[in-house]
Amino acid sequence: MAETLQNLLLGFSTALTAHNFFYAFMGCLIGTMVGVLPGVGPLAGISLLLPSTFGLDPTGGLILLAGVFYGAMYGGSTTSILMRIPGEAASVMTCIDGYAMALKGRAGPALAIAAIGSYVAGTISVVGLMFLAPPLARFALRFGPPEYFSLLALGLLVLGYMTGGSMIKNLAMIILGLLFGMIGIDHMSGYFRFSYGIVALGDGIGVVPVAVGLFGIAEILATAGNPLRPDVLKPKLKDLLPSRQEFRDSIFPIGRGTILGFLIGIIPGSAHIISTFMSYAVERRVSKHPEKFGHGAIEGVAGPESANNAASCGALVPMLALGVPTGPVPAVLLAALMIHGINPGPLFIKEQPTIFWGLVASMYLGNFMLLLLNLPLVGIFINFLRIPYRILYPIILMFCIIGVYAVNTSFVDVGIMSVMGVLGYLLRKFDFETAPVVLGVVLAPIIEMSLRQSLAMSNGAYIIFIQRPISAVFLGASLVMIFLAVKPLVWKRKDWRERLAEAEKKS
Amino acid sequence: MKTTRIHWVVIVLVCLGAMNFLLGKALAEEPYPTRPVQIIVPFPPGGVADLVARPFATALEKHLKQPVVVVNKTGAGGAVGMQSAAVAKPDGYTLMVALSSISVMPEVDALFGRPSTYKLKDFASIALLTADPTILAIKKEAPWKTLADFVADAKKRPNEIKYSSSGVYGTMHVAMEMFAHSAGIKLRHIPTGGGGPALTALLGGHVDCLSGGPNVSIPHIKAGTLRVLANWGDKRLPALPDVATMKELGYKDVEFYIWSGFFAPAATPAGLIKILREATAKAVQIPDFKAAMEKMETPIYYLDAPEFQKFWDSDAERLIKAVRNIGKAQ
Amino acid sequence: MTIDRIGGIALFLLAGYVAFETRVLPLGNHQIPGPGYLPLLLAVVLGFLGVFLIATKKNAPSFRSLKWPEGIHALALVACCFFATFAIEVLGYRVTMLIVLGFLFGVLERMKIWWVLGLTLGLSFGSYYVFNNVLMVILPRGGLGF
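YS: structure for the whole thing
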């Protein structure tokens, strides 16, 4: 403990130097901007900044890039709440309740709680990173293909059971998303699936065009010409802060979201978006008013937003403790270090204490800076809602096109976004949920590859899923889920879903 | 008032727009290059090609006197980016840095009976930048002390020893299969989604070995978690002087490099290619670039266009043979 | 004809299409699933779900009760999106945006001509400047050099 505090002091002395402080600030600022822009995510921002970090010292460069990474998670909620367009793929869940709150004139509190939740989650996660990095990372490394498959199967079951609406429709939407995710080259055999000779489809359709299309484009399609457009209540100054009740309601979701996000973030290969989905589903299940979800429940904003910030911090744990990248963004951070000749590996924390503890300290500072940046910005962003919608929606369309095109400089992505926009519009009309489709697209490659890799590892024996302890635990939990879902068919007493349906009918 | 505020916003936007319009028109026809040059990297940021292209772009900027921007166009193991570079306008503003897998893709397409997305002669070679041989990495707890132990064990239990790769027909897969074919052994292939996940799988003990680039493995080798049994190159690596090459250990036809080369669309005028060749030759001399590459354990291995073409042709022949030996994987 | 029934029919048709498309892919077997295995499995499940939806007795709103007041606008926006998709690399970003925004502001929203010109030119060229030159996010230039 004492040693940790000593190291932390060393870290703060590094992080508080003028230029490192400046880099942290720049990183957070750019990260917020990148997060606010629909489609463009932290990966694009970091790739753009990578050349500029060549001239900086490694600590400064890493602080800058990491700032963009977790800063983007703050900014992503802004467009989600104000315009129902995900700022980046992980913010999809915030669109649902966040935008509903904005329609009720509670956009300010939603943005504020998102910022506060993100701050709390980020700070607690850094504490976790500080104390638990090496043992957590070693645990994360034991996740192999069978564990991924069992975890994701459990996750899908959890979602299917806990999200509202008709379970059949939700399941159909997840399967639709999974099928979309299977378009492209099959990494296990080299066959192209469903790509019709279009090379750009060869790598699949990507989650960014799908998320921006299903949520952003579909939103403007549904609202642009609608004479019945609900006039967004222009909030007054005192409405900008959350009420005491909203604060109280958010405490536990923030806590649960932090833990859930952090644990999911440390697993290599999982995506942030999974943590937000799980957090939303969990909040819905434990809430005393599940019927409020989808219509402006603050828990539906606090939980997912905390989860995705905690996940971005968790993603840094294996990278810093073992030199193992958990996803494309940590991979670029590793590359940035390698370019400076620093070799991240198991001895990184011991050999480079200045860099590691400097980064940890700057993350504390960065989270605080982002809170200070984002809270006043709430007042400024609210004004965005004052622009008359007839001028606003073409601007939104323009930003969506830029954002989606910029991800892979490919017009095919813009086309996919358009198709998804039409699909999202029709799905809304026919009363289907669109969020599970995005989840399916993200999960499809991971879940299919994990299944086939596991079978390749065991040469076709399905027993491998039970032989490995972690995987067996997840499968056991899945069975419990299935049992809970089937229970109402056997027991005649109404279960919570039917009570929920009744409550919805009354309200 | 609301109207006046929007008024101002519009005026500012119009001014920005007018500025860009006028700047665009002011540039008349001038010698190459007069605007930013794009280098397409068909792989995701942080990967081998990307790590080479970025310092290289910075070094090129000094001689071309124009911004050189790296654009990642990922997909289909690199096919998307390579195809877009093949059909790009041959005006010298769209170039490409690609890896040795460029030689493999058309052959794989032929194997699956589908039209290939590009042909090797769609590209004009400018220079070879790096040529890292792959190395056989195993966990430090593994029972094999030498390559001979490994081969003997593999012969005793065929299809039992697992290795990970960055994807089917990718560099790590072809390299390992080339060796397996030469040694007459059968190994079990576990493809993953990329170089990073493949290394993670080995570190976690989910596979037994892999054949990968030295740069990402060296930190783990220095830390002691991984060991190296052999090296697919022609000569021993300066970073790993105790590791013998496959040729030394008796497998004379096994040679595999993850090389990165600088290409332009084939129809680019010879004059522009000459300018690029000269700029590259100067760029690889810049001490900053050299130092950056050495720090990444990917030393510069420069060959100008004619020598590079010879290298590429002979390497492509080896790779195509290896792919044919693999056949249709599943 | 409820919306659920239409949804169910659409899902069933999609499932059939996917199953048909997997015919060229090797299925493998339960031990070593091939590339066609999981898509086919999912398509079968989706087909069943579609049938459930068609046969369900739940009281869903009928198709005729759906209102489409935003229909024309939506159609125009969709046309703009697809136009942008194909034109962005042929005509270049700025020209495409000029056409799209000009159409939206001028024709669809019927704003005054000076507003239309100002907003369209400003947004197209302004955004190009900010993204291409300042942020170094390369936006395409088309055949006209724009």
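YS: worth flagging: Chain B has eleven helices and eleven strands.
IM: good catch. Also The longest strand of chain B covers residues 123-133.
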